[in-house]
Amino acid sequence: MTPISLPGLTVEVVPPPAEPDPLRTDVAGFIGRARRGPLSDSGGPVAVRLAGQNDWLRNFGGLDNRASTPYALRGYFENGGQIAWVIRVSGQVTTASARWQPSRAGVPLDDYLIQAASPGSWATGTQVLISYVADGPVGGPAVSIRVEAPNEPVEMFTALAPEALPDALDSSQLIRIRVQPGEMTSDQPPRRWASWQLTLTGGTEDSGVPPSVNAYLQAVQALADQPEVALVALPDLYADLAGGDLSDVLTALLNSCADQLDRLAVLDLPSGPPVPEAVTVLQDAVLAVGTGGRRSAAVYHPQLRVRDPLGGSAAPLRPVPASGHVAGAISRLDRERGPYYTPANTVLEDAVDVDQQLSDDDQVRLFQASVNLVRCGPGQGLQLWGGRTLDSGSGRFVAHRRLLHLLVRAIRRVAAPLVFEVNGPELRLTLVRAITAVLLRSYQAGALQGDRPDQAFRVQCDDKNNPPGQDPGLLICEIDVAPAVPMEFIRLRLVIGQEARLEVVEA
Questions:
Q1: Cα(200)–Cα(197) distance, rounded to whole angstroms?
Q2: Comparing C-alpha atoms, which of 73, 8, 100 is closest to residue 327?
Q3: CA nearest 255: which of 276, 286, 210?
Q4: With 80 as the cut, is the pLDDT of residue 271 above it?
Q5: 61 and 104: one domain?
Q6: In Å, how far from its chain's centre is CA 321?
């Protein structure tokens, strides 16, 4: 919005950020390492909603050559992603800090502990320049603070009232200030002005100790609690975990996606071993996952080579898992054409080449394992080939699963307000009408097959599936949906049970 300018005054009206919308199916969630960013006090997961690359830079500090997730996030936004939820996981970290003790200098202020806004080595060496005047511009004591962190924009806070000091710095992306009451130790009269230059020290991050399996499991659960997330990517997973730990995380992730029935895990293959061995690693890791979980995952290979400004002239490119770029392309196609559009033959941006040229035998092996390819053809750029999930049965198409995710989210939206209504003919009719309206919109958009709506879907909520002797606290609504070719039916069952519970299951 255009700022309103007057002599000595500029007013700019900034609209509030959009609220999370659980009906969206173009929002991705990322779990992985980052240069900096919030961790809970106990080291557990904190989910942060990012509205574009500027939010990513502000909250997580941009690229970090020790991790793949920052490059995957850049690829997500460059390929058309708009909103992302990010959870930072980390190994052993400490927080850089410094003591500020104005009372020892004869300044009538409390003592303070200045800490980096988030743990990690990124803040070690940060310079905090502080000035104090007894008569500030607002007629009382005032403190000004300048923060200069390595590879970060400078932050300035001017003319702060001492009593508002800790809260005023909560908006900083770089530091936090906490009061530690001190006593005046100087015999001199109170000083009228003073300045300090402090250096934060002690911030460490052991790159040799990756995030634990518990950190990943907690992050998977935290991301599952965000109803807006429809795509999930873990770009650093194979670099951090292996063996049973890897299997535990993938099993938890895919089972969570299957239970919620409204999101797709976008996964990679490990990049180090040859293709047959990499496929075996994946298959062993998801061995305990049932059909529902396999339907909730799409795997892409090989890795991409992307620009790396941190590599300098010696290493201008670096390999990055494709999941972030693919999630961005799916997100963009979702808004342009709908979630039921197959993400194949789609060009990927922010990548120069694939990291590995696959032989014909490797491509056949990947196809047999239901792994989608990223290919680089002459004059065609980087393209996605294939749109299949890990399920080799009827739920093998990404477009069909994503259509189902949209329907589940829409059905929940229309059915949730009805959970407290009296179970009777009026409730059943209201529910059928609301769900029919959702399905009719999908049919008109071309997502369902058939020459007429009755060939594309059916909604049943009557005495056949709710017989007269049934518990009055239970209401069942069955929905049959025929996605566009290939011709396969999907059946959903909507159950409104006791204690006002709403459940959507795939029959």
A1: 10
A2: 73
A3: 286
A4: yes
A5: no
A6: 16
Q: Looking at beta carbons, which pairs linking 161-170 to residues 24 or more positions away fall under 8 Å?
A: 162/109, 162/110, 165/112, 166/112, 169/145
- CA count, 13 A, side-chain hemisphere, 100: 31
Please name the residue that has the structure tokens 């951090």: 240
* Interaxial angle between packed helices 53-60 and 69-78, expressed in degrees from 0 to 180 and rounded to the nearest 10: 160
The string of pLDDT tens digits covering residues 100-142 is: 988 888 888 888 999 999 999 999 999 999 999 988 777 788 8
CATH number at residue 176: 2.60.40.4290
Question: What is the β-pairing status of strands 501-506 and 111-116?
Answer: unpaired
Determine the Cα–Cα distance for residues 483 and 198; give it in Å rounded to an integer: 63
Domain stop point among 184, 205, 226: 205
Closest C-alpha among 79, 49, 75 to residue 63 = 75
Structural domain tally of the chain? 3
Q: What b-and-e string marks burial along 217-233, b requiring 16 or more CB atoms within 10 Å of the CB?
A: bbbbebbbebbbbbbbb
Residues 117 and 231 in one domain: no
Tokens 């997730």 belong to residue: 69
Last residue of a domain, one of 205, 234, 253: 205
Measured distance CA(11)–CA(112) in Å, rounded: 34
Exposure of 338 by Cβ count < 10 A (0-12 exposed, 13-18 middle, 19+ buried)? middle
Label residue 498 exposed, middle or buried (CB < 10 Å: 0-12, 13-18, 19+).
exposed
Distance, in Å, from the CA atom of 140 to the CA atom of 15, rounded to the nearest integer, reads 34
Cα(298)–Cα(305) distance, integer angstroms: 20
Do residue 197 and residue 214 come from a single domain? no
- Does residue 18 lie within any of the structural domains? no
- 380 and 415 share one domain: no
Q: What is the 3-state secondary structure (H, E, C) of 214-228?
A: HHHHHHHHHHHCCCC
Span 430-481, pLDDT tens digits: 889 988 998 898 888 888 888 899 889 999 998 888 888 888 788 888 989 8
Cα separation, 335 vs 70, in Å, equals: 24
Structural domain for 444, as ranges? 411-506
Scanning the structure block, which residue is given the tokens 């300045």?
195
Q: At what angle do helices 275-285 and 360-368 cross, to 10 degrees?
A: 10
Look-up of token digits 């909507």: 494
Instruction: Say yes or no: 362 and 228 in one domain.
Output: yes
Spatial separation of the C-alpha atoms in residues 365 and 359, rounded to whole Å: 10
Query: Helices in 296-397 by DSSP H: which ranges?
Result: 323-337, 360-368
SS3 290: coil
Residues 230 and 348 in one domain: yes
State both tokens at 108: 């009538």
